[in-house]
Amino acid sequence: MKLADLADLIGGTCRGDVALEVKALATLEAAGSSEVTFLASSRLRPQLEQCRAAAVILREEDLPSWKGPAIVCDDPQVAYGRAARAFDTSPVSEPGVHPSAIVSKNASLKDSVSIGAGCVIEAEVDIGDGVALGPGCVVESGAVIGPQTRLNANVTVACRVRIGAGCYVQSGAVLGSDGFGNVKEDGRWVRIPQLGGLEIGDDVQVGAGTTIDRGALGDTLIGRGVVIDNLVHIAHNVKIGEHTAIAACVAIAGSTVIGSRCTLAGVVGVADHVTIVDDVHLTGMSMVTGSITKPGVYSSGTGLMPSKEWRRSAVRFRQLDDLAKRLAVLEKRVLE
């Protein structure tokens, strides 16, 4: 497409050769003479000296550092996302039901749906317009999948789960699995049936291998626009507010409430029955053991250091209580 057309699509202003033909997106380092790249941050300006791209998406203040054609915009990261959608060549599923799929006669499927090879659709399932199910998906009885939602291969949607419109679920995700509900009875663990459900709002993304448990009593709730990375576990009766982002390997224990517009970086752990207000940002590997009542950025744990230093520090950690007591005694003597 022409550079000017791309600029219109992504909401930028074309500078230089408006008729320049561009064919794809690439990184600053790898972009060639027919490709577009983007400058996400001004600190990356030095990389423009070696860049061989046909054009660069950047901010106005970065334009003097680039001598070639450009698309100027307020937020190159957002513009890059729009450009990626413009150049996306992912296969589009054709409507229809694969002959190897097993579909209950009591399921409701719109004519525009695409059901891949080996899928199983049980009774009382309702699948909306434009839904695409990749090979091997299982949708259990009573589940509802909203319009234009896509499930990649081997996704399991358990019974009575409700998924909104425009969602994207990657391979291997399990939605509505039984929560970790057990009670110790006569010295052994006995499973408690999980009687609730799972409700996922519109425009939610769920990563590969992620599991979201159904409620024990009542529903687990995932709000509109939530994005969830790969290998995340969300336990029973968790509630997550709109437009919260959860990175890989996060684990959220049961009955936790997380507000809107929060971010949980990789490997964050959240204890059960915790409440986190809106606009909280948790840095990587943080452990949340109590409720957070004020917006802000929170961290826990220690940063990386050479192993010998860490061992010495670990010894000192164990001595902190004794040192605090000795300091209190010294302070008391000074004040006497």
How would you characterize this protein structure?
The chain is of the alpha/beta class and about 325 residues long. The chain folds into three domains: about 5-85, Udp-n-acetylmuramoylalanyl-d-glutamate--2,6- Diaminopimelate Ligase, Chain: A, domain 1 (3-Layer(aba) Sandwich), CATH 3.40.1390; about 95-300, 3 Solenoid (UDP N-Acetylglucosamine Acyltransferase, domain 1); about 305-335. It contains three helices and 37 strands. An eleven-stranded parallel beta sheet has the order 6-9-12-15-18-23-26-29-32-35-37, with no helix packed on it. A ten-stranded parallel beta sheet has the order 7-10-13-16-19-24-27-30-33-36, with no helix packed on it. A nine-stranded parallel beta sheet has the order 8-11-14-17-22-25-28-31-34, with no helix packed on it. A hairpin with a 2-residue loop joins strand 20 and strand 21. The radius of gyration is 26 Å and the shape is flat.
Strand and helix map with partners:
Layout (H helix, E strand, L loop, with lengths): L2 H8 L2 E3 L8 E2 L9 E4 L16 E4 L11 E3 L3 H12 L8 E2 L4 E2 L4 E2 L4 E2 L4 E2 L4 E2 L4 E2 L4 E2 L4 E2 L4 E2 L4 E2 L4 E2 L4 E2 L4 E4 L4 E4 L2 E4 L6 E3 L4 E2 L4 E3 L6 E3 L4 E2 L4 E2 L4 E2 L4 E2 L4 E2 L4 E2 L4 E2 L4 E2 L4 E2 L3 E3 L4 E2 L7 E3 L8 H29 L1
Parallel strand pairs: 2-3, 3-4, 4-5, 6-9, 7-10, 8-11, 9-12, 10-13, 11-14, 12-15, 13-16, 14-17, 15-18, 16-19, 17-22, 18-23, 19-24, 22-25, 23-26, 24-27, 25-28, 26-29, 27-30, 28-31, 29-32, 30-33, 31-34, 32-35, 33-36, 35-37
Antiparallel strand pairs: 1-5, 20-21
